[in-house]
Amino acid sequence: MQLLEGKTVLITGASAGIGRAAAIGAARHGADVAINYLREDAAAASCVAEIEALGRRAIAVKGDVSDPATAADFVARAVDALGRVDVFVNNAGICPFHAFLDMPVETFERTMRVNLHGAYYMVQAAANQMVRQGQGGAIVAVSSISALVGGEFQTHYTPTKAGVHSLMQSAAIALGKHGIRCNSVLPGTILTEINRDDLADPAKRERMAARIPLGRLGEPDDLAGPIVFLASDLARYVTGAALLVDGGAFVNLQ
User: Which residue, 34, 63, 91, 230, could crosslink 142 as a Cys pair with Cβ 3.0–4.6 Å?
Assistant: First the structure.
């Protein structure tokens, strides 16, 4: 069963990690896919090639999500190449780990611009295209378990992920009358480039995994299914919701 047959999906930050897994997962479920990326040309090209190997159309559009012009450009070029926007996945994000008391201003502001401002611009541009099309749509934002809990070296990052979650709640209200659903996924600790250095110590990785009821850290592919579900008509009455995808980490207080 292909849950996204005939749909066009746009995903930010999709040359690697969760975004790439979601892009390929969407293609496996019948979608044509446009990916946004910032630096890795070869990785973006290989993602497009994997999608095309599944018999779907794909394009990669380079751009920095912190620039408002990038959002309009990404949506316009996706529509030009693929015809429309049915699903938008806001995934692009950064987390340069740093202590709170001496947080560099530029580190804080860059994290805000990419993770929160970029999400706002991108979601707004995609939503406007969906409204013009007049057939509804689905928006899924990759927030984080960090929207719900703190992190000593993430004082700049956790507020952005809480903001993305809040954005989806408010956008669900603003866009419901247009038939556009807005939801979040909240990943736990997923092994990606964002935390590769932080989890390079085997002892720390083992300690983190031991806290998770399912007994392992997450992988990018663990997010593909939940994102496809929220984007699909199986979730046609789900909006303003947040789905934890964390192996049970959040509930493991005791």
Answer: 91
